[in-house]
Amino acid sequence: MLDESKRRFKYLEGHPRQYRFDAKEGQFNINGAEKLGNTLTFQPIAWRIFTDNILNMGTKNWAEIFFVDDKNCVSALLFHGYSVDNIFRLIEPLFYDDLTLADVIITAVAEKKENNKIQPKGIYHIASFSYKLGTPERTAELKQFAQEHKIFRQETLTDIANIKTAFNYYNPFAAMGDDTDIIQIPPTVG
C-alpha cells in the first residue's frame, strides 16, 4: 500500500518543476514563463550549497533549494552570488537553534541594487530571506517524503561540484559504488 505522502506529492525523479529567480528583473517565475512576482514563499525539503560551472554561467557559488509548491509538485529553485550569502545568513541562527531550512517556511524577496561603478549604472536584484517556523505536522510530512525519495535535478548535476553543505540531496555520483544515497552534511557557516 502506498504511503499517503508518496501519492500526494508529484515528482519525476531528477526533474523537479523549475522555479527561477530572475536577478535582472527581480521576479520569480516558473520555467522562465509564468511570472510570480517579487516574492516567493516555500518550505525546503532538500538543498545543496555548492560551487560549480553549470548552465553555461561559469563557476559560481550556488544554492539549489527543493520544495513542494502549492500544486504539490516537487520544485527546485537556484540562487547564486550575493543571494547565496544571504541564505548562509539564514542558516546560521537556525543552526544555533537546532533547526535547519527544512524546519521553516522561507519568504524570499527580490531587493533592488545598483552598481554605480559602471556607466550606465547597472541595476540588479538579490534575494533576501526571512522565515517563520513550519507546522510540526507539515514539516514531518515533508521530511519523510524527502528521505524516501532521491531528490536532485539532473540538469544541474556534475561530477565536479564542490558541495559546501547539503540536506536530503541525492547525488548519483557520490552514490556510485557506495551504499550512501543521501548526502547529509551538517550545515556550516563560512
Brief rundown of the structure:
This protein is of the alpha+beta class. The protein has helices at 4-8, 82-96, 136-148, 172-175, and strands spanning 17-22, 27-30, 34-37, 39-42, 44-53, 59-68, 74-80, 104-115, 122-133, 162-170, 182-185. The strands form two sheets. Strands 3-2-1-7-6-5-10-11 form an eight-stranded mixed sheet. A three-stranded antiparallel sheet has the order 4-8-9.
Tell me what the structure shows.
A hairpin with a 4-residue loop joins strand 1 (17-22) and strand 2 (27-30). This protein has one domain (4-185). The chain starts with a helix and ends in a 5-residue tail after the last strand. The chain has helices spanning 4-8, 82-96, 136-148, 172-175, and strands spanning 17-22, 27-30, 34-37, 39-42, 44-53, 59-68, 74-80, 104-115, 122-133, 162-170, 182-185. It is globular, with a radius of gyration of 17 Å. The longest helix is centred in the middle third of the chain and has 15 residues, at 82-96. The strands form 2 sheets. Strands 3-2-1-7-6-5-10-11 form an 8-stranded mixed beta sheet. Strands 4-8-9 form a 3-stranded antiparallel beta sheet. With 190 residues, the chain is α+β, with helices and mostly antiparallel strands. It is built from 4 helices and 11 strands, in the order αβββββββαββαβαβ.
Q: What distinguishing features does this structure have?
A:
alpha+beta; three-stranded antiparallel sheet; 4 helices; 190 residues; eight-stranded mixed sheet
